[in-house]
Amino acid sequence: MSEAAPIPVDPTPTDWRDPAMQKRIRRRYRAERRFKLIGLASILLSAGFLAFLLVSMVANGMSGFSRTELRLDVDLRPLAARLTPQQLAAPNAEDVLAQIDFETIMRTAADAQYGERGSRLFSPSGRLVIRDALREDPGLLARPAQLWLPAETGIDQAAKGHGPPELEARYRQLEGEGRSRVSFNAAFLGGADATDPTAVGIWGAFKGSLLTMAITLLIAFPIGVLSAVYLEEYAPRNRWTDMIEVSINNLAAVPSIIFGLLGLAIFLQVMHLPRSAPIVGGLTLALMTMPVIVIAGRNAIKAVPPSIRDAALGIGASRIQVVFHHVLPLALPGILTGTIIGMSRALGETAPALMIGMRAFIASPPGGVSDPATLLPVQIFLWSDEVSRGFVEKTSAAIIVLLVLLLAMNGLAIYLRNKFERRW
């Protein structure tokens, strides 16, 4: 009887001591290290660009929150023959003060104290400071007043180290005489647009943005959430529903200027709504924000476990009770997060506002949703087109305010998500 031949045994395919396997392992580890280094470099590069942006904006914009003021002794006693304290306290005090030539009063006092053409050292908005001082203190009709008025743009920039040598020397002289100072520019936060960079403010554009965002939220949020609920919980699965879903996804990616053209065609040319008004801006931005809210709402509703629905139906809840008592409360964090992200995108948009005419020169804050107004991004765009150095720092300062507002909205999204988040 012949002896059976031994069955050959193949080498183990995962022989870690095999040279070829060791070579593959080293190559794999090198690729992993390269991937980690590329990822780290990308993060550092992004952080560097972000830091450069923030540092440059803060460096250029912080000076926009301050202004240079010059001392001026003003004698308003000659006005006592025309004005009385009772008139200044009356409801029509604004009309009474509008008849006084405060600009001539300012120029006369400035030329007398600072020499010939001394009035050129002061900003034209100084007359408003004199007017407001008289309105707040009618006693100035009986005594001389020492007021601090804003300096003109050249002196203001010289005080901040951006002016020509002759103006810087002139400012140093005024500073040595104790007739100049640098103070917080409250008018920048409480004023509106102006032709003089020392008198401009962001409150008009900021209020216009708030009114526009309020209308956008009131329209886009309920319609977007209800649309998401219907598509996810009630809509039948057929080709019409699929077409609607594809259309919503495509609308979320449409360039914002298309929505501006849509708002121009519908709200202005067809519905004849007031041009450059928050009501038109809010309706236009609501069209742009709604698809984002629908998509975020659907994803949040879809993330709710089916067991929640089954348990509610099992204890006798109706379909609508299941949706509004159980599904929506659990999906609320995701819905709110998507809504605020969409609103943040709408707040930073400029193209739609330009298309519907919200780039007008607005010298006073809007009183309502139908009054002419502009948006903060549009105001930044308009100031950036000016050549004066004073507008450059005001542009950067307005960007800082816009960034703070956007960060606050995103912080609110994080807070709401954590507050309403439920774990199961």
Can you tag this structure with a few keywords?
424 residues; mainly alpha; MetI-like fold; 17 helices; 3 strands; 64% helix
Tell me what you see in this structure.
By secondary structure, the chain is mainly alpha-helical. It has two domains: 123 residues, no CATH class; 218 residues, MetI-like fold (Orthogonal Bundle), CATH 1.10.3720. It is 64% helix and 5% strand. It is built from 17 helices and three strands. The chain has a three-stranded antiparallel beta sheet. The protein starts with 18 loop residues before the first helix and ends with a helix. The model has no long low-confidence stretch (mean pLDDT 86).
- How many separate helices? 17
H/E element order: HEHHHHEHHEHHHHHHHHHH
Cα shape:
extended
Q: Name the CATH superfamily classification of the largest domain.
A: MetI-like
Distance between the termini: 72 Å
CATH architecture verdict of the largest domain? Orthogonal Bundle
**Rg to the nearest angstrom?**
32 Å
Structural class: mainly alpha
Major β-sheet strand ordering: 2-1-3
Number of strands: 3
Helix content: 55-70%
